[in-house]
Amino acid sequence: METDRLTDLTEAYGSLIKKRKHYIEAVALMQWDLQTNAPRGAVQGRSEAIGTISTEAFMLLTSDELDGLLTELLKIENYESLSPVLQVAVKEDKRELERYRKIPTDKYRAYKTLTAKAQAVWQEAKMNNDFQLFQPYLEEIVQYQRDVLELFGYKGDKYNVLLDQYEPGMTTEILDEIFQYIKDKTIPLVKKIQLTGNRLNEEMLLKPYGVEKQKELSRRVLQDMGYDFNRGRMDVSAHPFTIKLNSGDVRLTTHFSEHYFKNALYASIHEGGHALYEQNISHELKDTSLFGGASMGIHESQSRYWENMIGRSLEFWKYFYTPTAELFKENLMGTTAETMYKAINKIQPSLIRILADELTYNLHIILRYEIEKDLINGMIEVADLPRVWNEKMEDYLGIRPEKDGEGVLQDVHWSSGMFGYFPSYSLGNVYAAQFAKKMKETIANYEDIIEKGNFKPILNWLRENIHSHGKLYKPAELVQRVTGEAINPKYFIEYVENKYQKIYQLD
Ligand code: CO
Predict the structure, then answer these.
(1) CA of 105 to the centre of ligand 1 (A)
(2) Is 451 a catalytic residue?
(3) Whether 36 contacts 235, CB under 8 Å
(4) Measured between alpha carbons, how far is 279 from 35 in angstroms, rounded to an integer?
(5) Bridging pattern class, strands 249-254 and 234-236
(6) Which of 163, 322, 417, 449 has a CA that sits 20 to 30 A from residue 47's CA?
(7) Residues within 5 Å of ion ligand 1, judged at the Cβ atom
(8) Rounded to a whole number, what is the distance in angstroms from the first to the last CA of the chain?
């Protein structure tokens, strides 16, 4: 009797979760299409369709039906009989349901419509360097964020609520300390590099590179990394991204520029890192809400590990120089793996985050983090953003944008309401360096295998230690399990200091 009832409960719960996953897959496919192949005319209608299906998924998540099932499953007599995976899953689902139930459906729907519109307005504002056009929309979005965190309730800093959505368990207390450390170490290092006057030559990267051949190189590197093209595909979009439709379909996109060789290659490797994560989650988690990355920071650790610690290493260029030079003989005449490595790693403060080198990149993130935190806490208002942005750019990077399109309007995140997301990128750098340190201790001939383009032992390590677990562990728990200590930015700083000391011959 008892077991039958439990089976009925878990089945009913499983089919609701599956239904929600199907809605999410529909939305993902609509979004993928919108950003890759859909004609311009599709935008309005598609945004509405996405709004409708997203609201269905939201209503399902917050439904009395799911709530009833979860409440039953969480009763001690039932809970104890669940598999360890289901135990974590029901707790997580209940937590999410409780949070989202606090948002009235009408408010949620209105917000979805607002952000769909805001993204289109932001694009126009960015193109015309017209912050005032975007300002009223951003004000509404910020107001929604402030309202929601009051509804959710918070401990400590209000911004913790937003952080927690992307990095469960992360707080401003921890982040302030990590970011202060990175800032204190990075700013003088960048100055030191600039003082050497040792401007690395990247001329070879600015020659015309045919798109078809670039595509071939991207496919080659993805294949060597272990990306499974039978369960994914590579397409082109304005902003590269990775999207999981279901367990057998994890797609990525890249963006080719004929006159900047670095763009497509590193976008492909970066998105490849995200895609490998999603392709290697244990199938045991497939039908649960745990089938995804542990957090956005851990996700970024995977993309940034492949992009920077593999893709921008000297060993990588010892392996990848030959296939590149075979395709682009004329462009690379008179160059070597070593000169290519140096060109790729040129340090130069840039106005644009996505064009930043791996050292100055974190300064772009810290600036955004500080602004978001002040904005959410009411220390500054939306109208202050252009001024505050430009001041901080000058303080941290020594350059000042002349147009808002290259400044405060450059990123899509705020127009889609993604407050609390930016720290994930720098957390990714920090986690990646910490994981890499561990990998070097455990994988034999770590440098040699990279030089040979044999990434299998690396992918196996990542799969076993990180990918396979999906959302089973919270990020802090995962980092502790994998590295034996809590998050520590020391390894990232060690890594960059070491690397750039050699490249720029600093003393
Ligand atoms: Co990424």
Answers:
(1) 30
(2) no
(3) yes
(4) 21
(5) parallel
(6) 163
(7) 303
(8) 75
Taking residues 78-101, report their average pLDDT. 95
Catalytic option among 271, 315, 372, 451: 271
Asked if 226 and 456 count as a contact pair (C-beta separation under 8 A), the reply is yes
Half-sphere exposure of residue 6: CA atoms within 13 angstroms, side-chain side: 15
Question: In 197-313, where does DSSP find H-type helix?
Answer: 211-225, 261-279, 296-304
Residues 6 or more apart in contact with residue 25 via CB below 8 angstroms: 245, 246
CA of 73 to the centre of ligand 1 (A): 36
Distance, CA of 304 to CA of 430 (rounded, Å):
10
Distance of CA 369 to the CA centre of its chain: 15
Distance 127 CA to ligand 1 centre (A): 24
For residue 11, count other CB atoms closer than 10 A to its CB.
Answer: 11
DSSP letter string over 59-125? HHHT-HHHHHHHHHHTSHHHHTTS-HHHHHHHHHHHHHHHHHHTS-HHHHHHHHHHHHHHHHHHHHH
pLDDT tens digits for 340-394? Answer: 999 999 999 999 998 899 999 999 999 999 999 999 999 999 999 999 999 999 9
CA of 208 to the centre of ligand 1 (A): 26
170: its two tokens: 């992360």
